[in-house]
Every structure is written in C-alpha cells, then in structure tokens.
Amino acid sequence: MRRFGVASGLSRLLLDLARTVGVPLVAGIPQKVLADVLGVTPRTLYGAVAELGRRGAISTRWPVVHITDEVVLKELARSDA
Questions:
Q1: Tens-digit pLDDT profile for residues 37-80
Q2: If exposure means fewest CB atoms within 10 Å of the residue's CB, which of 19, 37, 46, 55 is most exposed?
Q3: Three-state secondary-structure class, residue 66
C-alpha cells in the first residue's frame, strides 16, 4: 500500500510541475531529487514510476517524464490510498 501512496504523491508533484512549466512533461529533474522531495528512497520512487507507467499515466525516458494521460494522473493524485 505504501507504494500506491507514493504513486499518489508523485502524481500530484508531476501535475504541479507540469502546470508550472505549461507543458505535459517534466524534464531535467534527477530521480534522486524527486525521491528526496517525496521523502522516499530512489527504489521506492522507481516502483511508483513503474506503477504510473503501467496505468498509462506517464511514460519515462530519464530525465524526461511525459504525462500521457492527465485524467488517470489526476485520479491517482486524488487517491489517498
């Protein structure tokens, strides 16, 4: 369950960052920095990124995270699980 909670937090963070930039992608932020911001290990972040990818919300090619389905990402961001 913790992984899904991290996925929810990561979803909110990615939506906020993309809104700030004005495009549906986040580029140039190292995975370690994202993990630190969320207060998790890089391994835990990797699991959350994989979960968002499986759900079709994002695609990644580090250091670029592309939001592929904003609706799914918003649903995950609202989840407190």
A1: 999 999 999 999 999 999 999 999 988 999 999 999 999 998 85
A2: 19
A3: strand
Distances in Å between the Cα of 57 and the Cα atoms of 7, 52, 73 are 11, 5, 5
Local structure of residue 22 (DSSP, 8 states): T
Cis check for the bond before 24: say yes or no (omega within 30 of 0).
Answer: no
Decide if 38 contacts 50 (C-beta within 8 A): no
Sheet with strand 58-61: strands edge to edge:
25-27, 64-67, 58-61
**pTM for the whole thing?**
0.88
User: C-alpha 67: how far from its chain's center?
Assistant: 9
Rounded CA-CA distance 74/53 in Å is 14
Rounded to 10 degrees, what is the CA torsion of 1, 76, 62, 41?
-30
Place of tokens 């909110």: 12
